[in-house]
């Protein structure tokens, strides 16, 4: 098959110089592409260790390791407050970024994220419902959050399919906004019904998004759905590329596009719902991080997915560290993530190289 | 199984060209639960190791037939057979190793590099959780070489010209090392130079034993490249057989409903519209 008579380079070779600027991308995977992951992993590890020491006890700043050895209180603080919180922040960021990558690839739409497709708001509604109406235990809360998150995504998708306006990218964004608004209204009603002295403050602060008060118990509830979801997504990351292609092509390549998409979507949405039910709505990570990851490694999810996971963990952890240390009182994580996320995203969209087709 | 193209192609059973590698018998198909009938009682034999062109006016059911042959659509009646065995009896991966598709207009949403995109053609040889390995890279690079896109392996797909893009899609299908390649209007977006290049590649594929099936609405293209032709009209096969005996003025006039003239110049057919 290699032995074709004349291998003339094709027409566009002439336009090579202009193209070449766009071709500065990592090439073959193996040893070279492993390096960004090494650096990102080390960075995440470093920030994670730092997060355990940074805080406002006993004084604002960094807790010295020697103080840790002497001060039982400090040790308790690090082990029972900062450690579970640090791990939750990393899981939160990883999950949102992975879910964003999955949604963007499967819906072939670089402008979606869990917060845009009714996933986060659906999960929030489910969790709020269990807090207000049922005062249910954590497990029920997670289950309801997951159920409503899946419902939100399904509604957004079905609405976009039937909408008679605009192209696919626009329709999906619009229907996601509508469905999210629907669930936000539902949360609003729940807030209105909530007891203003006991339930309402909880609900409001939880909705702002944050990880204060995360305990080992919360983490224990968070871990199974999040780990299961992330493992499925991670293992199927190369397959995601295939699922981003047209249905007929995916079918011709031996995939079952419909079934496999549902599997990956449910994994992503259940993990996200678990995270939302603990941390509230934290936006923009799912939109921004996959873009940066693709910029770093190229679109191939084989590399872009691990990059997304690491970057998501780093981004959420840094935001959470700032949220709890910048002021004496805590700044809600959702606000900080939106602030940094939106600013970075604007910068990214204004820079060259970003193309949104259609 | 060796995974290089040159090693696999000859290893596959050589079929006499009279034998249909892919056949359809009494296919009926309609969309919307058979309410809108597209194909009715259609039977067809695709000869192995040759190029078969499926011709017909717009809306005659060419693309639907191609999707039935691929198996992505299930006929309401009748059966598609590949190597004598019902298509539905193959596993997804088995089928993917035998039947490739070059769609008319493939939407590639993210900027994969050309090589990464072509590698997706290895999916039928990989498990659901498996990643392509070194051997798969080699096959992908050979497929790129076969269409002359090797120098562009690292370029993002969206930066390719229309012609190069079509060749990249073909290379992706070749990485499947298929026995049969289904091509939907393969030249419709190509200029003359790229059409000529694609036809040359198609001929070289056939000489290596690959069976090609293409749909087209261009009888000139069909007569220049295809040894066999199938003329479709309103969801049925009007005539089928060697291109020379199918692509006659009478048949074409009947299919398209306009007077078509066919001349023979230097042993090549020239098809003229009124």
Subunit arrangement of the protein? heterodimer
Low-confidence stretches of chain A: 1-32
Judged by helices, strands and strand pairing, the structural class of chain A is: mainly alpha
**What is the CATH level 1 assignment of chain B?**
Alpha Beta
The helix tally of chain B amounts to: 11
Q: What's the alpha carbon Rg of chain B, rounded to whole Å?
A: 19 Å
Major sheet summary line of chain A: 2 strands, antiparallel
The amount of beta strand of chain A, in percent, is under 5%
User: What would the CATH topology of chain B be?
Assistant: Rossmann fold
| Chain pair forming the biggest interface | A-B, 47 and 66 residues
Relevant CATH superfamily of chain B:
P-loop containing nucleotide triphosphate hydrolases
CATH architecture assignment of chain B? 3-Layer(aba) Sandwich
Q: What is the rounded distance between the termini of chain A?
A: 35 Å
Based on DSSP secondary structure assignment, what is the total number of beta strands of chain B?
12
User: How far is the first residue's CA from the last residue's CA of chain B?
Assistant: 53 Å
Order of helices and strands of chain A: HHEEHHHHHHHHHHHHH
The figure for the number of domains of chain A is: 1
Write up what this structure looks like.
The complex is a heterodimer of chains A (about 350) and B (about 270). Chain A is an all-alpha fold. Chain A is about 70% helix and about 0% strand. Chain A contains 15 helices and 2 strands. Chain A has a two-stranded antiparallel sheet. Chain A is globular. The two termini of chain A are about 35 Å apart. In chain B, helix 6 crosses helix 7. Chain B has a single domain, classed as Rossmann fold. With about 270 residues, chain B is of the alpha/beta class. Chain B has a 6-stranded mixed beta sheet with strand order 6-7-8-3-9-10, sandwiched between helices. A 4-stranded antiparallel beta sheet of chain B has the order 2-1-4-5. In chain B, strands 11-12 form a two-stranded antiparallel sheet. Mean pLDDT of chain B is about 85; it is low at about 1-20. In chain B, a hairpin with a 2-residue loop joins strand 11 (about 260-265) and strand 12. Classes of the chains: A mainly alpha (about 350), B alpha/beta (about 270). Chains A and B meet through helix 10 and helix 11 of A and helix 1, helix 4, strand 6, helix 6 and helix 7 of B.
């Amino acid at each position: 098959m290699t032995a074709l008579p004349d291998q003339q380079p094709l027409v566009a070779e002439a336009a090579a110089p202009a193209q070449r600027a766009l071709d500065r991308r990592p090439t073959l995977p193996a040893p070279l592409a492993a390096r960004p992951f090494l650096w990102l992993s080390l960075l995440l590890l470093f920030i994670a260790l730092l997060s355990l020491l940074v805080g406002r006890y006993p004084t604002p700043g960094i807790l010295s390791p020697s103080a840790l050895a002497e001060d039982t209180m400090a040790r308790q603080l690090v082990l029972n407050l900062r450690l579970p919180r640090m791990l939750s922040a990393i899981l939160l960021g990883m999950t949102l970024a992975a879910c964003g990558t999955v949604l963007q690839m499967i819906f072939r739409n670089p402008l979606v994220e869990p917060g845009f497709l009714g996933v986060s708001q659906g999960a929030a509604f489910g969790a709020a419902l269990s807090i207000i109406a049922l005062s249910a235990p954590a497990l029920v809360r997670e289950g309801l959050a997951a159920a409503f998150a899946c419902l939100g995504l399904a509604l957004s998708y079905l609405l976009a399919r039937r909408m008679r306006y605009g192209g696919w990218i626009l329709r999906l964004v619009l229907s996601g906004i509508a469905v999210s608004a629907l669930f936000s209204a539902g949360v609003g009603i729940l807030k209105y019904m909530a007891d203003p002295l006991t339930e309402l403050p909880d609900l409001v602060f939880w909705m702002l998004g944050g990880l204060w008060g995360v305990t080992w118990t919360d983490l224990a509830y968070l871990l199974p759905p999040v780990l299961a979801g992330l493992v499925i997504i991670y293992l199927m990351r190369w397959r995601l590329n295939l699922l981003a292609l047209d249905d007929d092509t995916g079918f011709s390549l031996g995939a079952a596009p419909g079934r496999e998409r549902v599997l990956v979507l449910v994994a992503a949405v259940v993990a996200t719902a678990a995270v939302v039910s603990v941390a509230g709505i934290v936006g923009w990570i799912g939109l921004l991080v996959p873009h940066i990851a693709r910029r770093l490694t190229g679109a191939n999810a084989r590399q872009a997915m691990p990059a997304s996971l690491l970057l998501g963990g780093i981004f959420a952890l840094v935001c959470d560290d700032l949220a709890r240390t910048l002021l004496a009182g805590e700044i809600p994580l959702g606000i900080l993530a939106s602030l940094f996320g939106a600013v970075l995203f604007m910068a990214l969209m204004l820079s060259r190289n970003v193309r949104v087709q259609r | 199984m060796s995974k290089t193209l040159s090693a696999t192609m000859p290893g596959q059973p050589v079929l006499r060209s009279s034998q249909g590698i892919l056949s359809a018998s009494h296919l009926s198909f309609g969309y919307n639960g058979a309410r809108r009938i597209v194909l009715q009682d259609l039977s067809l034999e695709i000869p192995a190791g040759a190029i078969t062109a499926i011709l017909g006016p717009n809306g005659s059911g060419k693309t639907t037939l191609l999707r039935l042959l691929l198996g992505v659509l299930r006929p309401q009646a009748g059966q598609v057979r590949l190597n004598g065995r019902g298509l539905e009896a193959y596993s997804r991966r088995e089928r993917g190793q035998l039947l490739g598709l070059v769609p008319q207009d493939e939407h590639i949403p993210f900027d994969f590099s050309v090589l990464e995109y072509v590698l997706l053609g290895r999916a039928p040889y990989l498990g659901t959780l498996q990643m392509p390995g070194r051997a798969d890279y080699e096959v992908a690079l050979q497929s790129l070489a076969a269409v002359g896109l090797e120098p562009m392996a690292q370029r993002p797909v969206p930066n390719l010209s229309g012609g190069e893009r079509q060749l990249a899609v073909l290379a992706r299908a070749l990485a499947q090392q298929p026995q049969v390649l289904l091509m939907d209007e393969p030249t419709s977006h190509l200029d003359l130079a790229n059409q000529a290049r694609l036809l040359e590649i198609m001929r070289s594929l056939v000489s290596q034993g690959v069976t090609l099936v293409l749909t087209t609405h261009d009888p000139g293209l069909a007569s220049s490249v295809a040894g066999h032709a199938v003329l479709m009209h309103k969801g049925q096969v009007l005539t089928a057989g060697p291109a020379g005996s199918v692509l006659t003025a009478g048949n074409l006039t009947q299919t398209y409903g306009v007077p078509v003239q066919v001349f023979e110049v230097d042993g090549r057919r020239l098809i003229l519209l009124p």
